[in-house]
Amino acid sequence: MPTILITGANGGLGLEFTRQYAADGWRVIACVRDPAKASALKALGGSVEIRTLDVADFAAIDALAADLKGTAIDVLLLNAGLNPQLDAPLAEEADYDAWSDVFRVNTMAPLRMAVAFRDHVAASTRKIVAAISSGGATVSQAKGGNYVYRSSKAALNQCMKGLSKEYAGRGLTIVMLAPGWVRTRMGGPKATFSPEESVTKVRTVIAGLSAEDSGRFINNDGSDCPW
Ligand SMILES: NC(=O)c1ccc[n+]([C@@H]2O[C@H](COP(=O)([O-])OP(=O)(O)OC[C@H]3O[C@@H](n4cnc5c(N)ncnc54)[C@H](OP(=O)(O)O)[C@@H]3O)[C@@H](O)[C@H]2O)c1
Predict the structure, then answer these.
(1) Domain 3-219 maps to which CATH number in 3.30.450.40, 3.40.50.1820, 3.60.10.10, 3.40.50.720?
(2) Alpha carbons 16 and 31: distance in angstroms, whole number
(3) How far does the centroid of ligand 1 lie from the alpha carbon of residue 32, in Å?
(4) Which of 28, 76, 116, 189 shows a CA-CA span of 20 to 30 A to 171?
(5) Whose CA is nearest to atom 25 of ligand 1?
(6) In what order do the strands lie in the sheet with 3-6?
């Protein structure tokens, strides 16, 4: 049975990833900030193992990695994310107070997770680290707005792309995935894809990955997302 660890599994895409991988027979280590509030996750039952993890707490990341020492993790899915300015404000309205928290969760935590769990992933069969990025990270087609969130995801891409080079000798496949615009708490009701549609597509991308894909930034249809 392959194993996946998912951060931010309490709702949105993380919950749907958990549901689909569990239904497919995977062992799912579903990480949430507060298990007491994870009723939808608990209802999935089966092979889902709920762990407490606030990814902004780096000591907690290291402690979980130590606790799971010896566990092979086929897919490390770095999904937890924050986007406090959902209405895509202009530069004048950028929330500078929120920026450091967003950067910690969206950029620093995924790198810390990838480093903390590198041996768990390297010990697995599939050896995949997948960071959920965003089309909004694309610098070459920047259209203005939502500077806080988009800069955090662009920086995430820099970190993960860099790590794919640094860890090239470890046999890991490290990718950044753009899930599309999805109807979650973050994406809102007008978004293009349901969580089920987006996750189905992203899972197909993950299932088709090979070592040659390491370092790619990939859309939910498998095409390259522009940098
Ligand atoms: N929806 C879209 O259109 C879209 C588009 C591109 C990229 N994405 C990315 O997709 C990922 C999932 O987003 P979503 O749409 O599912 O949004 P969501 O419904 O708001 O879910 C975000 C999840 O991240 C968790 N989270 C936030 N801060 C955390 C922390 N410090 N520690 C642990 N978990 C934390 C939340 O936990 P709580 O439930 O405890 O708050 C929640 O489960 C994010 O990385 C997001 O940037 C989404």
Answers:
(1) 3.40.50.720
(2) 13
(3) 11
(4) 28
(5) 8
(6) 48-52, 27-32, 3-6, 75-78, 128-132, 173-178, 217-219
Per the DSSP assignment, residues forming a β-bridge with 77 are 6, 130
Nearest CA to ligand 1 atom 33: 54
Distance, CA of 94 to CA of 119 (rounded, Å):
38
Residue 213, both tokens: 């894909």
How far, in Å, CA of 187 to CA of 203, rounded?
19
Sign of CA dihedral 207, 125, 156, 22: positive
Would you call 147 a catalytic residue per the annotation? no
Q: Confirm if 22 and 47 have CB atoms less than 8 A apart.
A: yes
Å from CA of 79 to ligand 1 middle: 6
